[in-house]
Inverse folding.
């Protein structure tokens, strides 16, 4: 068993001084694979102090030089992709090919944010007097506290680190305890790329204790969190008490709307891939499959056939197309939701069963004829479960699509420009992809509305929340 006791503070790996720890489990076997030592308050204080010193240096570094360092980090990610992918698969469970795609996307994200940092323009405002000049400049908000999840341990961290560093901010990041070694790679990559000491600091430990310490600390000026709605609301409330600006990327329950006029074969192939990617542990995963009555039965048959072709197994096995759930706790939560749905009348068309006695393997699952009375239609399943329900009219599907307090991602498949226009105008979501899978690219916004959070972690919008606006009015004398 490996004990991971190092924190990355002020440009160096240092031993955690706390005496508490978390046991890590291999999702493919269920065995304890390591022990992660928790940071003490003294460690957190050191990380915050380092971030303040690092910020003073980094904000004075030109945007051009910052860009070069961030792009060097992107290049190093690509160079080390094979080893990092193997590490991610071992800790998180996803198939090697999915891990490699995540790393490639993360490198692209860093390239995008690096260039956006060079274009954080101000402006000149024409004044009412020839003796007055008026200008607007953009400045980094300050040191940032960031909290990232285990389902995409590299890319979710990069979506915070990239724009923060591009804007000139420093960061203390608490990566997930489930995948410590994978996210630790980012500290090594940025260190090797030439990032100054103290600009990026990594700590692990009790999430509640760390969030309360960092968010309340006067040095920290912004908070970025990705995770569950429940925890996100607590983080946002805590940040509000201390007047810290926030980016919140929270959960979803994405509707996937399939109209009678959709290309069914293409739609089935795309939605099955998206549904079972990362074993369904994706915040933008399609979950509520809302199928128009005229194609419901043919869609159901083809989707079940497509899902049944998936090969479930350890992520490092060449034939595997779907790996395990992250933990026994996640397995239990998904099992409970499936059982509740079947008890309330859903048809179990595929799966719903554990595979073997070791690890957290669940068969790809399809539930049909689900209703809003079932828990799984109201709670994010975050697992390999597709929920099929019928609709007759666009009015009905928009009502169902907007019924929940979530508003992150959505998908629609239709040949009708009128239907597409209505869905685009009336669905209460942060992202809508029509007739393809078009979410999550570096150059496009990534975020939700309602209980799914606020702010963006992609596109030109991502860097905005790491910058403050300063207006300068200068009268000549």
């Amino acid at each position: 068993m490996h004990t991971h006791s190092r924190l990355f503070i002020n440009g160096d790996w240092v031993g955690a001084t706390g005496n508490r720890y978390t046991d890590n489990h291999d999702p493919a076997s269920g065995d304890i694979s390591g022990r992660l030592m928790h940071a003490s308050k003294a460690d957190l204080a050191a990380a915050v102090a380092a971030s303040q010193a690092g910020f003073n240096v980094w904000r004075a570094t030109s945007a051009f030089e910052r860009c070069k360092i961030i792009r060097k980090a992107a290049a190093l990610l690509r160079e080390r992709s094979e080893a990092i992918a193997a590490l991610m698969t071992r800790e998180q469970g996803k198939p090697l090919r999915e891990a490699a795609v995540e790393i490639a996307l993360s490198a692209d994200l860093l390239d995008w944010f690096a260039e956006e940092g060079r274009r954080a323009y101000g402006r000149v405002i024409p004044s009412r007097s020839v003796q007055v000049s008026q200008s607007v400049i953009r400045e980094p908000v300050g040191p940032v506290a960031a909290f990232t999840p285990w389902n995409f341990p590299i890319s979710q961290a990069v979506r915070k680190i990239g724009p923060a560093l591009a804007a000139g901010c420093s960061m203390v990041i608490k990566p997930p305890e489930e995948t410590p070694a994978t996210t630790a790679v980012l500290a090594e990559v940025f260190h090797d790329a030439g990032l100054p000491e103290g600009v990026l600091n990594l700590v692990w430990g009790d999430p509640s204790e760390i969030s309360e310490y960092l968010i309340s600390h006067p040095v920290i000026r912004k908070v970025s969190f990705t995770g569950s709605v429940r925890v996100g609301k607590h983080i946002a409330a805590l940040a509000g008490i201390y007047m810290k600006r926030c980016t919140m990327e929270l959960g979803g329950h994405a509707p996937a709307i399939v109209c009678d006029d959709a290309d069914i074969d293409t739609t089935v192939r795309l939605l099955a891939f998206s549904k079972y990617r990362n074993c369904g542990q994706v915040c933008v995963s399609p979950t509520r499959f809302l199928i128009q009555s005229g194609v419901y039965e043919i869609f159901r048959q083809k989707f079940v056939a497509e899902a049944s072709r998936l090969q479930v197994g350890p992520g490092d096995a060449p034939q595997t197309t779907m790996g395990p759930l992250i933990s026994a706790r996640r397995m239990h939560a998904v099992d409970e939701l499936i059982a509740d749905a079947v008890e309330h009348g859903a048809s179990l068309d595929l799966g719903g069963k554990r595979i073997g006695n070791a690890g957290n393997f669940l068969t790809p699952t399809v539930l049909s004829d689900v209703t809003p009375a079932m828990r799984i239609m109201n709670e994010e399943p975050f697992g390999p479960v597709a929920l099929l329900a019928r609709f007759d009219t666009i009015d009905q599907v928009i009502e169902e699509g907007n019924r929940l307090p979530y508003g992150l991602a959505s998908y629609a498949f239709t040949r009708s420009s009128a239907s597409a226009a209505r869905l685009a105008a009336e669905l209460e979501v942060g992202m809508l992809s029509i007739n393809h899978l078009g979410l999550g690219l570096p150059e496009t916004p990534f975020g939700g509305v309602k209980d799914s959070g606020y702010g963006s972690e992609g596109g030109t919008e991502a860097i905005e929340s790491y910058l403050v606006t300063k207006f300068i009015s200068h009268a000549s004398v």
In short: The mean pLDDT is 96. The first strand starts at residue 2 and ends at 4.
